[in-house]
Design brief:
Layout: H1 2-20, E1 22-32, E2 42-55, E3 58-67, E4 71-83, E5 86-95, E6 100-112, E7 115-124, E8 149-158, E9 161-169, E10 174-187, E11 193-201, E12 204-217, E13 222-231, E14 235-243, E15 247-261, E16 265-280, E17 286-292, E18 313-324, E19 330-340, E20 392-404, E21 407-420, E22 428-442
Antiparallel strand pairs: 1-2, 1-22, 2-3, 3-4, 4-5, 5-6, 6-7, 7-8, 8-9, 9-10, 10-11, 11-12, 12-13, 13-14, 14-15, 15-16, 16-17, 17-18, 18-19, 19-20, 20-21, 21-22
Length: 443
């Protein structure tokens, strides 16, 4: 009932918005073949609504999110504006289901003498640091599950250096958190330039990354980019070959160096977890292949919840392309095929359900309808995964088609093998088909 009231509020907002507001409404419906039902059973996977009001240099924004399972799940407010030479950006997040305040961020910026300066202040309540739209790669200065806190960020940028220092207060007093230094286009001999990023925290060194474009140039328009990241727990080397006039390929290796200590440091070996090969033929036309010899470590490299561990998924092939739509804008299509092997079956923790969150400020564009997560996993032991054609375990197709300059329809179709349990039956494998229908309306 709550999500129906939310949809009614959307319709009212669209009508009112024609007079003085602008905004965007996105939603996604999903139908799944499991559990079976006599009539089609579509569920509202998620819907987000943005309302914006602009007056002079100021813009006020409201972002709301709803789902059928949880009703009104998220609410965020934001503003941007100018006061003399200063710019001000603010955001505030709430949990409307409680209701409860979650977090706040305010950013004050100014340019002085060619230096871009900014000061940010953040506050969050117990366990809500990662609830916000702050960079998920950032580490909470306090216990991310239970502690509230404050964070202060000073940033100065003057080419080619960007300097950032952070302080935090976990209700015990203000203390130093970290320093991040970035250098862009640092010149070497022979016309070679590279970028450097260095990160220190209170605990010490975290990582240093070196990256260079066109490090090696060969004949026939072939060149190579190189990026090396040296961290405390991982080392990554990315070599990107460029083929002028045809496309851009990327070969990235995922691995680490294994050490052990007994008063001295010894090198045990180099662990090779997987790799990615990607070739970009245009702005949105690409082919991508990812495989892992150790899919249990896939989350260390940004592939968390990509592979279904119960059937032993370890690699995928993805193709994407786009073109001009009949009614303006661009259509896009992505096709992904996943492969599995019994040797990679992992017994993981149960994955939490998908939950929509308010988008970032400014609006990042249309949301794609999510592929709902696999069903909750039954208790161990599990039956042996089925033998499939070519080892294919799952296929997903996502399309985005513009209907006009202000509206887009997103369609998703997935098919795959999943482990389920019906009633008192023992766990068994079955194929589940999921159809998602999404849309985005701007007004």
């Amino acid at each position: 009932m709550r999500w129906k009231l939310g949809l009614f509020a959307v319709c009212v907002a669209v009508g009112v918005g024609a007079a003085q507001f602008s905004g965007e409404w996105s939603a996604a419906l999903a139908w799944k073949s499991w559990p079976p039902s006599v009539l089609p059973n579509f569920t509202l996977e998620g819907t987000t609504l943005r309302l914006a009001y602009t007056t002079g240099p100021w813009k006020f924004v409201s972002d709301s999110a709803f789902s059928e399972a949880s009703g009104w799940t998220d609410q965020a407010f934001g503003l941007t504006g100018e006061v003399g030479p200063f710019t001000l950006t603010g955001s505030m997040w709430f949990d409307p289901s409680t209701p409860a305040y979650l977090a706040t961020e305010a950013i004050l910026g100014v340019t002085f003498g060619g230096i871009d300066l900014s000061f940010s202040a953040r506050h969050w309540t117990d366990g809500n640091y990662l609830w916000t739209d702050w960079d998920e790669a950032e580490i909470s200065p306090c216990d991310p599950q239970v502690e509230a806190g404050l964070q202060y960020i000073l940033k100065a940028a003057f080419a080619p250096v960007t300097f950032q220092v952070r302080f935090a207060d976990c209700c015990t007093g203000t203390w130093f958190q970290e320093v991040v230094v970035e250098l862009d286009d640092v010149g070497l001999c022979c016309g070679i330039a590279f970028d450097v990023e260095l990160w220190f925290t209170k605990a010490g060194f975290q990582y240093v990354m070196f990256s260079a474009e066109d490090l090696v140039t060969m004949c026939c328009g072939i060149s190579f980019d190189l990026a090396v990241t040296l961290g405390v727990d991982s080392k990554t080397v990315s070599l990107t070959p460029k083929l002028a006039g045809w496309g851009e390929g990327c070969f990235e290796i995922y691995g680490d160096v294994d050490w052990f200590e007994d008063g001295n440091i010894y090198l045990e070996g180099i662990r090779f977890d997987g790799f990615k090969v990607r070739c970009d033929l245009g702005d949105c036309t690409f082919a991508e292949f990812v495989t892992f010899l150790n899919p249990g470590n896939a989350g260390m490299y940004g592939y968390e919840d990509v592979f279904n561990p119960s059937i032993g998924e370890f690699e995928y092939l993805k193709l994407g392309f786009c073109g001009l739509g009949c009614c303006g804008g661009q259509y896009g299509v992505e096709v992904a095929v996943y492969f599995h092997d019994d040797a990679y079956v992992i017994r993981p923790p149960i994955r939490p359900p998908w939950r929509p969150r308010p988008p970032l400020l400014p609006w990042p564009g249309p949301i794609r309808p999510p592929i709902p997560p696999w069903p909750p996993l039954p208790p161990w032991p599990w039956p042996t995964p089925p033998d499939t054609l070519l080892g294919i375990s799952r296929v997903e197709v996502m399309t985005s088609v513009p209907l006009s300059a202000d509206s887009t329809v997103d369609l998703g179709l997935s098919w795959g093998w999943f482990l389920v349990r019906g009633g008192a039956l023992r766990p068994f494998w079955t194929t589940i088909t999921t159809l998602t229908v999404g849309w985005t309306l701007s007004f």
